[in-house]
Amino acid sequence: MIIMTSGQRKSQSQLFALLTAFLFVLVFSLVGAQTAFAANPNDGCVSVPENPSNSGGTEISICYKWLRPFDKNKRTYIFLVGGPGAGFDYYMRFSEFWLNTALGQKFNLLFFDPRGVGRSSEVNATNLAEHDMRQYTLANMTNDIESLRKALLGDQSIGLIGHSTGGHQVFEYATRFPDHVFKVISLHGGASALGFLTQVYYRLAEWQNAGAAIDSQKLQRLLQLMQSGLACDSDGSKLSSSSSTQVVYFALYGTVSQRNMLPGLLNSLVLGNVDSRIFCEAPQVNTQRQFPSLEANDPLNAMSGINSIINTNVVCSNFITKDAVASLASPFRDPTYNSIWAPQCLPLLSAGKITENLFDVRRRISEIQVPILIVGADRDQWIPYPVQNEIWQNMTDNQKASSEIHELKRCGHFSFYECPSQLKSILDHFIN
User: Domain check: are 66 and 188 in the same one?
Assistant: First the structure.
């Protein structure tokens, strides 16, 4: 929790509003192309009703992949993706990591694209009107996990491992289908909307540090130039199609070391574009040089395929509801909800296209009767460690005796990329 004086709150909230405007004006246009679903004996799809309460209605496909050929003599872990709106491709970029853990050595590993994403009857701009978006919620995505289990494993129970919002879902499943799960692993997840909303607090500090030396009027000038298409990178390309993409990705998905680059880069972009003509004709910075080449499995590449429609739908339905935002202390409430999410969520809500079902299973955590592994990180900009600790505090002493909680050090949201040796050690100990 960040404690500030009233004067600090006023100045910092103004700066935060400007900085978040810079970030979010761009993010929702940055959706990468989905990978085609290749024919493979380890791949497949199951059909589920789009509306679980209407089994005779529209059916959609939920498509999956076994990381190794299914072995009937092994039990199965199902991986739940984050985003929300990501597909399992970002897990595949780390397939060697998973295979080299006790998970990969002792269990079948099953990955799948959530409803509406990628191979699983993707919802996109061309077919949006054909789908009932009220059905694209975490609750129904949890129903789809159960449908996969029944179709592929019959009466066998499963282990669950979820990352980010997938780490929220593992608890939703375990409380609703307690007889069908034998272990639960949450990587950087939470048990309520708080896990999503606390991003505000963490990012506020980072963006304040990144923009501390920047005159707010100059930052506003950059935003105006970007919106008018006049801001540019040093190679003469428009900022909206070059540097802005990288700035947004570093801020949203970047590792700890990548986010440390933000202050210098942001300052260069702002100062350089205050007089766009001079900056474009006499280059002062080249963001392509300032950013290192990304590795193939870097989170910035791995998360570029998030489905923005599904992302917005789940966020507005389950996390950034009016009730959730009302619980935030000022000055965070206004820039987060009114400036960023309200323009997207309120039209959907008023048109009856989504429901508001605030995600919160904290009070039901104590009902889970199987071992639980909770993993967080000290520099996670998405879901900070206090959110994981909150899960632990809602567990009983009997639960804790067979469960574990860990805080990874000098690590961010993508532990299987940023600190794989730490994570492997924890996973192997829990599994064994």
Answer: yes
